[in-house]
Amino acid sequence: MFKQRTITTFIGIPITIAVVWFGEPYFSIMAVIWGGGSVYEFYRIVGTAKLPPLTWFGLAWTLLFIVSPHFSKFLPTDILLTTAVIFPLVWLLGVRRKEDAFARWAWTVAGILYIGWLLSYLVLLRGMDGGRNWAFMALFGTFGSDISAYLVGRAIGRHRLAPNISPAKTWEGAVAGVIGAVLVCIIIVTVLNTSIGYRQAILVGVVISVVGQL
After folding, report:
1. How confident is the model at residue 167 (pLDDT cuts 50, 70, 90)?
2. Helix, strand, or coil (residue 153)
3. What pLDDT, in 10s, does the model give residues 89-129?
4. Number of Cβ within a 10 Å radius of residue 76
5. CB–CB of 161/181 below 8 Å?
6. What are the φ and ψ backbone dihedral angles of 50, each rounded to 5 degrees?
7. 193: helix, coil or strand?
8. Distance between CA atoms of 141 and 211, rounded to whole angstroms?
9. Rounded CA gap, 30 and 20, in Å?
């Protein structure tokens, strides 16, 4: 796992920096690739519980949500939300095993909202004034939190954070994750001369890490 993460880091970070720096359409393409892979993996995990969601519908609506900021006149959020809820519900009326229908519908919609809808905010963030710097903080603050938590947790982690959810995660790793995200945000503020100061960078780093870990 460590070897995988190291290889991914060395390949992924330069690509991510370039994509964030040059912006659209590359940034949205990256978000679509991430979102598509993530929701497919989400549905694959759900499917192991013998509650197969409507994977292809969920994948399509996830991608529509991600690109929707560029087509707000044709793909308003309220229409996407409404169809994401109603269409799979109507489809599942026709399945034989009615006792599984509600759970399958719920997991299908959950994947769309959790991954597609939330990733659309990342696309919106990059499109804001100063969005490049904010996107750097959002992405690399998350990376810094994850890497720090992993390394410290593996090295000195002893106290389990949430054993019923993720047995390998520890309080030591969680604290290290917050510190890692804060340091990354401070570095970004220093290097890119952003419009926010160090106090705000510390706050952003804490929020990124805590929300990311949750």
Report:
1. confident
2. helix
3. 898 888 777 778 888 999 999 999 999 999 999 999 999 98
4. 12
5. no
6. 60, 35
7. coil
8. 11
9. 9
- Predicted confidence (pLDDT) per residue in 119-159, tens digit: 999 999 999 988 999 999 999 999 999 999 999 998 998 88
* 166 vs 107, residue with greater confidence: 107
Q: Which single residue is written with the structure tokens 């520890």?
A: 170
Give the bridge partners for 76, in sequence order: none
Tell me the sheet residues that pair with 170. 160
Instruction: For residue 72, count CB atoms less than 10 angstroms from its CB and return exposed for 0-12, middle for 13-18, buried for 19 or more.
Output: exposed
- Taking the C-alpha atoms of residue 162 and residue 181, their distance in angstroms, rounded to an integer, is 20
Half-sphere exposure at residue 146, Cβ-oriented, CA atoms within 13 angstroms: 11
Distance of CA 89 to the CA centre of its chain: 25
Secondary structure of 20-83 in HEC code, one letter for each residue:
HHHCCCHHHHHHHHHHHHHHHHHHHHHHCCCCCCCHHHHHHHHHHHHHHHHHCCCCCHHHHHHH
Residue 115 DSSP code: I
C-alpha 20/C-alpha 68 separation (Å) is 18
pTM for the structure as a whole: 0.85
